[in-house]
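## Example record

The block below lists the input lines for one assembly entry, exactly as stored, with component labels intact.
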Amino acid sequence: MIQDPQGVWPVVRLTLIVSGAALAISAAIGIPIGTWLGLARFRGRAWVRAVIYTGMGLPPVVVGLAVYLLLSRKGPLGDLGWLFTPAAMVVAQIIIAFPIVAGLTSAALEALDPELSAQVRSVGANARQEALVLLRQARGGLLAALLAAFGGIISEVGAAMLVGGNIEGRTRVLSTAVVLETRRGNFATAMALGGTLLFLAFVINAALLRLNVSPRLRR
Amino acid sequence: MLRRLCLAFVVGLALLLAACAAPTQTPKPQRLRLATTTSTYDSGLLDAILPAYEQAHGVRVDVIAVGTGQAIEIGKSGDVDVVLVHTRALEDAFVAGGYGVERLPVMFNDFILVGPIDDPAEISGALTATDALTRIYDSQSTFVSRADDSGTYARELTLWEMAGLSPSLTDAWYLPIGQGMGETLLFTEEQKGYTLSDRGTYLSMAESLPGLGILFGGQTIAGNPDPAMFNPYGVIQVAPKDPSAPEADLAKDFVDWLTSLETQALISDFGVETYDQPLFYPASRAWCADRGADSPGCSGS
Amino acid sequence: MTDSACYRLEGIEYSYGGRWRLEIPLLEVMAGEILALIGPTGAGKSTLLRLLHFLEPPSTGRMAFEGREIGYPPPLELRRRVGMIFQRPLMLAGTVRHNIAIGLRFRGESEGGRVEELLRRFDLEALADREARLISGGEMQRVALARALAYEPAVLLLDEPAANLDPGHVRAIERIIREAHELAGLTMVVATHNLAQARRLSQRTAMLSAGRLIEAQPTERLFANPMSQVTADYVYEETLLERPESP
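Predicted structure tokens for the full assembly:
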């Protein structure tokens, strides 16, 4: 069914939209939480960190099942009618991706010289400026966090299958298409789709890494 | 660089939102959600017959192809409008539980036992499926079991029970792998084992399974000697929350269409060109009333 | 130099995780003076500087700045009136120019040629567009000074400003410190374990030992006639050890 190359385009498009939106929202939630976790000193920080780090290892199928139960017509959010739509897939992927973004952001900040924070405040930074400057210093780690999260969700299949339903033209993404074609015994098509997925991931990684070129070289 | 990243982020987000919003600009076609088993979808049957319905009725059919157990569960929670599966006991319980309106026969195909061409358990001489399974059991030949929530696995259990045998997990020759039909067939090919498969999936994958052959069940459904291997599919309209809602009419229309003479004719033609035999035999009430004794599916359910 | 107190610390105690300790019964830093902090490694010099920079709150005690009692957390404006050169200055990713301008940027002030002037004054023009994290330790020390002076603080705190420098650079840094003091009338507190440097730079000297303020006196009097035996022992030993390199 995806034998014709035209059939691949909507799948690629939806893959990018779903995983891109999930990554964007995960970054919007995960970077502030990771920054707070990496810079603030408070009681119970070790516990919060343990929770976030555990979240980094959540099996996508478990997330998918939880989101399914949540969005099912019989579930608490059933009235939204999101089940078997791209919105449900975005929700599941956010839950998978945001602990990765938050955990790796905080790890990147903690890897900075512990003196740096005091020296930045010494020069007169307020709390927001301090966080921004430190994030900038940790940008390599920050980028790695985003790329790890993106790689995790674009190739994830368990949750996408469960809450998306792999509906042709509606919720079929590259990873679920690979599963379908494998199930059908169309190994060549499945491999081609897998290659497309890999290529897509490569292009996005390369594009994002371009942003990490040192500012001195860019000016 | 942070500013640049933020900018890229915002631009990306805007593009995504635009992309998400764009399709909703066009008027939404009506949607009908159908949960079905992987066998009907992966064989290509639905791709072959649904476009006719979608064009004639202006309705998009969203197909969610999963295992029978999962399809039934999705139906129970009201997340789909129609269920098309092949495990009679579960279907009857579904309707009895008030989750479905009525179970209607649609079509049937059959199960076959496939195995290594040299047939170490000599099941090709068996007269019944239980006889064949007994030979596998006695010779301790490798048998691969779906062991999932599928109708195929449910049938396998029934057949073992009918044979009065209960292979256990401790039997080294019995391999419950918990995977789909396609994966199970590939696994069986690699392990040179036997397995129970629906005919359609086996035929569609036969090219990638050079070491396997149909050892019990005949080369076509008509040649299958054991009615215990028949595999009837039923369609059930999920009990609507609000029977007067347009979705309820839509689901009823779909069930009517699926069991109509024209659609049944489409089903009987499907696969003939590729496999020289139909993959599914129509069996709806309308079809049987029209064709009666001519059609192999009309004697049973 | 005026006689009014820039800082007044009274009954200050500070402890953190049972590790750093500090005990300052009474200490005043006069406006416009250079005060040297001496004492062996681990005496609490750096910790006292952090307290004076409002980076850490004292556990108990009262602290006044320019005659006003300080509550905690202190307002940002207070911290922004103080600059500090850390013992190991860290550079931010970006150019030397960016690093010098960062304090002004935090304050939302325009550079108005001040950065260029500082680049010239600290002989950093050739480095202006270099990546700051890749320059030498001595160069970083100069960038750190320029970075702190750019926003014209009222107080400059220096933590071992010559610790990692060779003698030629030590003289250069001291010249810069004296110049900054004379030009801007800055109040300065210099922590150093180099007693000769303390004598060269400061008008008054405070002696710390094991986290406790031992005494604070005009520099020459402290060295010639220490009140405490602890100070006397330290000054004597250190001076003996230092004699060969002292001019």
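The CA atoms of residues 54 and 189 of chain B lie 38 Å apart. Chains B and C do not touch (no CB pair under 8 Å).
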